[in-house]
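Researcher: I'd like a candidate sequence for this fold, 97 residues long. If you have to choose between options at a position, lean toward the conservative one.
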């Protein structure tokens, strides 16, 4: 499991805990937000997402998107082939003086 996935799972578990305590009326919304280290407005957003999509609504969607800066596979393969054919045996030290 990658560190980002682990952090998302921890956030979901902490939200479940603070949400259940908040729904029981033992703490206020501000205290529940403090437990998650977020603002009360962000906690309300989490509640809305939780009601709409369940725990999967709390996942950070940015982590599943492909970067727009990612190079196309064919371009990377052409670069690797060019490196193997032209600079065989060279290392990064040859290019940085």
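Model: Candidate sequence:
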């Amino acid at each position: 499991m990658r560190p980002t996935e682990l952090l998302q799972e921890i956030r979901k578990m902490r939200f479940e805990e603070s949400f259940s305590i908040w729904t029981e009326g033992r703490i206020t919304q501000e205290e529940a937000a403090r437990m998650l280290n977020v603002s009360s407005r962000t906690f309300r957003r989490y509640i809305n997402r939780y009601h709409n999509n369940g725990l999967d609504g709390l996942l950070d969607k940015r982590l599943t998107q492909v970067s727009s800066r990612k190079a196309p596979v064919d371009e990377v393969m052409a670069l690797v082939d060019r490196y193997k054919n032209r600079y065989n045996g060279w290392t990064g030290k040859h290019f940085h003086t």
